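Please, structure for the following, as tokens.
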Amino acid sequence: MKIELPPSVWLGIIETFIRRIDPSNPDVLEIESGESWVSVHPMVLAMIAALGSEVNNKKIDLTNFKTLSRDEFTRMNFFKFLGSEAKSVEVDTEPAGKYIPITQIRDSDGLSNFIKDMVPLLHLDQDKSELISYVMSELGRNVLEHAQTPMGAFFAAELSRDQSQRPGRTMH
């Protein structure tokens, strides 16, 4: 399987990104990027981590993964799920209310812990927080109950400014 990461992969172009994945060799996961900065939505990172965890014997090729954003990928636990040590400088891995790195969730306790850590990132009142918690719980439970995979679910979250609306924060 071959994944080419363009400079930006966000939800607005996720369909185009997914169509460009080459599944012709499922025994190897080859991830490529240019040498510039790469900005990737946390959902895409979780998706690639899930694919990497499914590759037998961790046949993962990062030879052409040359992005300047390696520290950000390290911070989000991207390399951990690919079975690869990041060749990167030390990075601040303390989320401190800014993000939750890629997390593999295999049971309801893991899902509850992820949601417990995620909700404070939103800075919402209790009613809205409960609604978001319910939605995330349903999404996670559906994966755990219906995907029929021992890998479970992969989640990640990151707080960022939404440039398309008034100043504020959104979570991806």
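Residues 32 and 65 are 4 Å apart (CA to CA). The chain has five helices and eight strands.
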